[in-house]
Design a protein that fits this description.
This protein is of the alpha/beta class. The chain is about 40% helix and about 20% strand. The strands form 2 sheets. Strands 1, 2, 3, 4, 5 and 11 form a 6-stranded mixed beta sheet that branches. A 5-stranded mixed beta sheet has the order 8-7-9-6-10, with helices on both faces. The chain starts with a strand and ends in a 15-residue tail after the last helix.
Length: about 280
């Protein structure tokens, strides 16, 4: 059976999916029609239900809950891995309301976290995450919210961190920050969903136990990224929660989504079965 699958070119995704899509596992007949896009492109395509299995921002999920459930494998969730609010000069949070802020996408968890942190900010715009730092440096905007590998490089170009949104969330809730997850179409059978989930969980486990196996695949899509940055990226976003969310991970996802709904930022959850059985 061939399934339409999509994830990003970021090292954490290529690392996690390598064994599954490159047939390092006994796949029980699973095959993949694979596409790779930026996370906000994936969010927008998920709204159009283009894929059977797709990486999304956790914050997107309420918008697609009628069509998708969440796998318990493949998530990007943890401590100390949240988005950063950065600027050329240090200034107080109270000053943000008068600043222009660039974010990596309307439906990203970074946008949701920033909206929880600074709901008074109205001058917001959106751009591909990899271009945000440069626009802050050039003065196109006063501040930006960065994700992924930019967390490791912003200081090198003279930028300052105004707020670690992951730390803000962790201090507020004592929970890990749920950034991304894998959505699967509700229309697939429970057996299909479970089989896909098991394959992905085993794929992540294999990558963590044998990181060199996925090295070529990761590097293929991260050619402009230093190898050390690739490694840091993977270590930051791939962990035990990526193998299985568990009850703690599910609690983190539900807490974030319910919090967003209570503040009127996200639609309320109305589907009872968010996660696959």
């Amino acid at each position: 059976m061939t399934y339409k699958l999509a994830f990003t070119t970021c090292p954490n995704d290529t690392f996690s999916f390598d064994a599954m899509v490159n047939h390092r596992l006994i796949d029980n007949g699973l095959d993949w029609d694979l596409q790779m896009h930026d996370i906000e492109q994936l969010n927008e395509k998920a709204i159009q239900t283009e894929f059977d299995v797709v990486k999304i921002s956790v914050a997107l999920y309420p918008f697609i809950q009628d069509d998708y459930q969440i796998l318990t494998a493949g998530a990007a969730l943890g401590f100390g891995c949240g988005p950063l609010v950065i600027a050329k000069e240090q200034f107080e949070k109270a000053d943000l309301k008068n600043k222009s802020v660039l974010l990596p996408g309307k439906y990203t968890t970074a946008h949701l976290l920033f909206s929880i942190f600074a709901p008074e900010v109205r001058n917001k715009s959106f751009k591909v995450f990899s271009e945000i730092q440069n626009d802050v440096v050039s003065g196109e905007v006063n501040a930006g919210v960065i994700i992924h590998e930019n967390r490791f490089t912003y200081k090198d170009i003279g930028l300052h961190c105004l707020q670690d949104l992951g730390n803000y969330w962790e201090e507020k809730t004592k929970l890990p920050i749920p950034l991304g997850c894998i959505a699967v179409k509700r229309s697939l059978s429970d057996d299909e969903k479970q089989l896909i989930n098991n394959r992905l969980s085993k794929s992540v486990s294999m990558a963590l136990k044998n990181p060199d196996l996925s090295k070529a695949y990761v590097s293929k899509y991260a050619q402009e990224m230093d190898e050390d940055v690739q490694r840091q990226h993977i270590e930051l976003y791939v962990n035990d929660f990526s193998i299985d969310l568990g009850e703690r991970g599910k609690e983190a996802v539900l807490t974030l989504l319910n919090y967003g709904a209570e503040l009127g930022i996200l639609p309320a959850l109305h589907q009872k079965e968010l996660f696959i059985k």
